[in-house]
Structures are given as C-alpha cells and as structure tokens.
C-alpha cells in the first residue's frame, strides 16, 4: 500500500500499518488507560470516538498550520453558530494562532516541510507517521495545543509529571525519530512546539530528552508482538470495562458487591 494524504487515515492503512495513536489505543498512556477491545473496534470501524470541543480546538490550530483550515471548517459545521459566526471556543483558537505567529522562533520551527508521511518497519511491524514540521538533516517538530503547559499531572503509581510523559508524547517522539532514522540514516532531535489554551496563551519549544525516547522505544519493542497478535485475531482482546465502548457493549451476567464499584483505588 502506498500511503498518501487521502488514504493515510483509512481503515486499510490502519490495518496494514501501526501508528502512534493506534499503539496508544492498545497499550495506553499514563494519562489514558488502554482497552484492547476498543482498539480493535476502532480499527474495524465499529466505533467512532466522539470529537470533544477540546480536541476540535487543537485540530483547528493544526489545520491552520497545515494550510487546510478551509477544508476543516467545511467538514465541521458545528464549530459555527446559527448566524454563521465561529463559536467562542474557535475564536479562542484564532487567538492562539495569532500568539504563535507573533513569535519568530516558534514560526521558524514550524517552517519545515508540512505533513510529511513516512513509513518503516520497526520491531516486526510496519509503521506510519505524519510529521507536522520536518527539517531534513536538522530536526522533527510536532505541534501540540494543550490546556496548560505547566500544570502538573498525577498518577497513583508514578506521582506528579508534566504533560509530555502523561500523554505519551515521549513515545511519539521516539517512534517519529526512529522512523526518520530508518528512512534517512539521520537521528534527529524531536521538538514539541506547544501552545496553551489559557486566557493568555503560553508558548514553548520543548526538546524531548534522548533518554526518555530511548526508554519509550524499549517499551514499544516489548509490546509489539501482542499488538500484532491482536490485530491478526490470534488472541482475544481484554476489555477495560470503563470506556464508552465497554459500557455500550456490556452484558450483565451476575450482580456485583457494592465494594466493587470503585475498583482499585
């Protein structure tokens, strides 16, 4: 299969290739638990995750810098009021865009080749990536629009951390870096060009430490055999029993004790 902008997100591409988002569906991140059955349902187009306003605001900013904002607006009429004006959340997105474009260094990092598609075989699986801003022989840049850049995230087992580790962006950095290295022979630094959705948008260029990427890549190697077995139907998926898919498809078999309602705390 030859990947293009038109078929990159197709079911056929998702079945043939692994992507960072698909990997996270199967394995999860510190901030979002995995559900193997949901991952397969999404892969087989049996379930479509609802697009939240927060996600659409980020996609609006992405589309602007991709040069596809008019297409995005046409495909998402719900971002407009009945009178045809942008809803308040998307006016805020324009403010974020304006803040980004006032910063020369941010714009320099975003000035690379846009939406570059690459594929490579890694750990026995075919991977696909799409680079937001690619500077050949220099660096890889990914645009992120976050609620906050400095808000501390927390998990029971790992304590407090920044948004990069919480949402698995170190994993994304590792995969993108490795695919580019396989295709070009160049091991490039990875940067997140980040902007916040706060009243006064914060902006930063964040370089992901190589040690974090190396650790993330090692964990990927361990998990790939199970993901491929799940995609090939060789083993049955595990349900998380807490996502919307599991709620929608739940079949009761017996009563539970009240003590089971909270699960593991």
CATH topology: Lambda Exonuclease, Chain A
Instruction: Kindly name the structural category.
Output: alpha+beta
CATH class: Alpha Beta
| Uncertain runs | none
Total strand segments: 7
Q: What is the number of helical segments per DSSP (H or I, 4+ residues)?
A: 11
Backbone shape? globular
SSE ordering: HHHHHHHEEEEEHHEEHH
Number of separate structural domains: 1
β-strand percent reads 15-25%
Question: How would you portray this structure in words?
Answer:
The strands form two sheets. This protein has a five-stranded mixed beta sheet with strand order 1-2-3-6-7, sandwiched between helices. A two-stranded antiparallel ribbon has the order 4-5. The protein has helices at 11-16, 20-27, 36-43, 53-66, 69-75, 88-101, 104-109, 163-166, 169-184, 210-231, 244-249, and strands at 113-122, 125-135, 139-146, 153-155, 159-161, 190-196, 203-207. The relative contact order is 0.16. The protein has eleven helices and seven strands. The chain is of the alpha+beta class and 265 residues long. β1 and β2 form a beta hairpin.
Question: Which features does this protein show?
Answer:
265 residues; alpha+beta; Lambda Exonuclease, Chain A; two-stranded antiparallel ribbon; 11 helices; 7 strands; 18% strand
Any chance you could write out the topology, listing elements then pairs?
Layout: H1 11-16, H2 20-27, H3 36-43, H4 53-66, H5 69-75, H6 88-101, H7 104-109, E1 113-122, E2 125-135, E3 139-146, E4 153-155, E5 159-161, H8 163-166, H9 169-184, E6 190-196, E7 203-207, H10 210-231, H11 244-249
Parallel strand pairs: 3-6
Antiparallel strand pairs: 1-2, 2-3, 4-5, 6-7
């Amino acid at each position: 299969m030859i990947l293009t902008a038109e078929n990159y997100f197709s079911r056929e591409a998702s079945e043939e290739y692994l992507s960072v988002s698909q990997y996270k569906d199967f394995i999860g991140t510190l901030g979002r638990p995995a559900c193997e059955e949901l991952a397969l349902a999404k892969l087989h187009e049996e379930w479509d995750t609802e697009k939240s306003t927060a996600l659409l605001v980020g996609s609006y900013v992405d589309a602007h810098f991709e040069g596809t904002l008019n297409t995005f607006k046409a495909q998402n009429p719900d971002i407009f009021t009945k009178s045809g004006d942008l809803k308040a959340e998307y006016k805020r997105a324009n403010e974020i865009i304006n803040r980004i474009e006032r910063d020369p260094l941010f714009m320099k990092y975003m000035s690379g080749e846009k939406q570059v598609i690459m594929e490579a075989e890694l750990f026995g699986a075919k991977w696909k990536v799409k680079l937001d801003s690619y500077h050949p022989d220099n660096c890889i840049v990914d645009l992120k629009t976050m609620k906050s850049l400095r808000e501390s995230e927390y998990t029971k087992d790992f304590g407090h951390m920044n948004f990069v580790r919480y949402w698995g962006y170190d994993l994304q950095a590792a995969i993108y870096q490795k695919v580019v290295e396989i295709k070009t022979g160049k091991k490039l630094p990875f940067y997140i060009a980040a902007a916040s959705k706060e009243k006064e948008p914060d902006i930063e260029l964040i370089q992901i430490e190589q040690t974090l990427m190396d650790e993330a890549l090692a964990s990927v190697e361990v998990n790939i055999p199970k993901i491929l077995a799940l995609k090939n139907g060789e083993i049955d998926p595990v349900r998380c029993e807490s996502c919307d898919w599991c709620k929608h498809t739940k079949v009761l078999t017996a009563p539970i004790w009240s003590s089971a309602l909270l699960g593991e705390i």
